[in-house]
Amino acid sequence: MSKKRKIRVGVIFGGRSGEHEVSIVSAQSVMKALDRKKYEIIPIGITKQGQWIAGSAAIKFLKSGIKKLPFKSVLPPDPTEKHLVKVKEKGLTPVSEKKPEITSVDVIFPMIHGTYGEDGKLQGLLEMADLPYVGTNVLGSAVGMDKIIQKQLFKQAGLPVVKYDWFLVLAWRQNRKKIISRLEKNLKYPMFTKPANSGSSIGIGKCHNQQELILGINDASQYDRKIIVEEGRGGIAEIEVSVLGNDSPKVSVPGEIISSNKFYDYDAKYVDGKSQAIIPAKLTKKTIRKIQAMAIKAFICLDLSGMARVDFFVTKKGYQIYLNEINTIPGFTSISMYPKLWAASGLPYAKLLDELIKLGLAKQQEKNQLATSYQPKKDWYK
Ligand SMILES: Nc1ncnc2c1ncn2[C@@H]1O[C@H](COP(=O)(O)OP(=O)(O)O)[C@@H](O)[C@H]1O
Ligand SMILES: [Mg+2]
């Protein structure tokens, strides 16, 4: 019997995002845990400048921050190719003209959080190249990144969200007085100022008065052209659940985050190492069931697939639930919530990765069955 060829998994990390560093740590955990008996792993790093470098040295180069790479890798958006080509650092000349070095990949595991990785742009390139990949498609990724559009869709689906308002940075620059008075009329302090597209709490501020509100909006404006301002909820537990699947997703037990800072900011998430997770979260059975049902509804409402971590605020008094946001490429270190919630629900880390790869391949198969051309009765266009 011939030995089955291993599945070649390209794990993509780094990227042009404020979450570049987090992504490297997530990808390292994924690559360490992928079963070598089943998979051949191709690390694919993307620098902060957006250059791709595939191969075993990718992590080292990204961590060193060196701008001059020994070579680059290119993924052509041509579906008949499905491989990476090694090219010279300058220009797009193959490293060897006579024997261009190419690496084929069977499936991509995108592990880039935030812009150019979690927001549908990378997924668009992979769709063009016809490469199967783990996680959500272009639409779900893009909407999942945009805190304004997703809240509009959640509201429409009857899912509870906090009170919010939003505006363009352009409008802020033109008439900040008008915006401030609108915000102060409609929302109570403290308010949270956020760039519409961000993650890891980058650009997010908690504002207790008008002065802080102005500073918060100015800070958020560095990251996006759209700003969302939310009414801050006090006395809340931050509850997260993991969703896994394509068209019939399943949901994990919930976990609670106990933040080491006043709110769950970048330092509390990654740097000080003092935030804690309580798994499973101590909630009533009824509240757990409600949260799980809402998480599935949110996943379907945004047309997601593969995986998502769905985050909630639950008031400690009265157990009022608010859907905060959805993350389509959640943190994936061995201590991250997404895999930990699955481990607590009976699916260990390595098995979770198997499942995600299977789901990515299944989605591709399903897509391949759809017609992509139409044969007109006459060649009318010639
Ligand atoms: N409306 C709010 N009320 C209370 N706390 C909030 C609110 N919005 C954000 N926070 C706090 O800020 C953190 C980050 O906000 P979030 O919208 O989840 O952004 P990110 O996508 O960067 O994780 C939350 O985990 C929470 O601690
Ligand atoms: Mg969050």
Shape: globular
Structural class: alpha+beta
Could you give the count of β-strands? 17
What is the beta-strand fraction?
Answer: 15-25%
Mean pLDDT: 92
What gyration radius follows from the Cα positions, in whole Å? Answer: 22 Å
Number of domains: 3
- What percentage of residues falls in helices of 4 or more residues? 25-40%
- Weakly predicted, low-confidence segments: none
Give the N-to-C terminal Cα separation: 51 Å
Q: How is the CATH topology of the largest domain named? A: D-amino Acid Aminotransferase, Chain A, domain 1
Query: How many helical elements?
Result: 12
List the quaternary state of the chains.
single chain
GO molecular function: ATP binding; D-alanine-D-alanine ligase activity; metal ion binding
Binding site for ATP: 147, 192-194, 200-201, 230-238, 324-325
EC number: 6.3.2.4
Binding site for Mg(2+) 2: 325, 327
Describe the overall structure.
- The chain is of the alpha+beta class.
- The chain folds into three domains: 7-133, 3-Layer(aba) Sandwich (Rossmann fold), CATH 3.40.50; 163-231, ATP-grasp fold, A domain (Dna Ligase, domain 1, 2-Layer Sandwich); 236-363, D-amino Acid Aminotransferase, Chain A, domain 1.
- Helices cover 33% and strands 23% of the residues.
- It contains twelve helices and 17 strands.
- It has helices spanning 20-33, 58-64, 121-128, 138-145, 147-156, 169-174, 176-186, 210-220, 266-271, 285-301, 337-344, 349-368, and strands spanning 7-14, 39-46, 52-54, 72-74, 83-87, 102-104, 107-110, 164-168, 191-195, 205-207, 226-231, 236-245, 250-251, 255-258, 276-278, 306-315, 321-327.
- Strands 12, 13, 14, 15, 16 and 17 form a six-stranded antiparallel β-sheet that branches.
- Strand 4 and strand 5 (83-87) form a beta hairpin.
- The radius of gyration is 22 Å and the shape is globular.
- Adenosine-5'-diphosphate (ADP) binds at residues 162, 192, 194, 198-201, 204, 230, 232-233, 238, 259, 263-264, 311, 324-325.
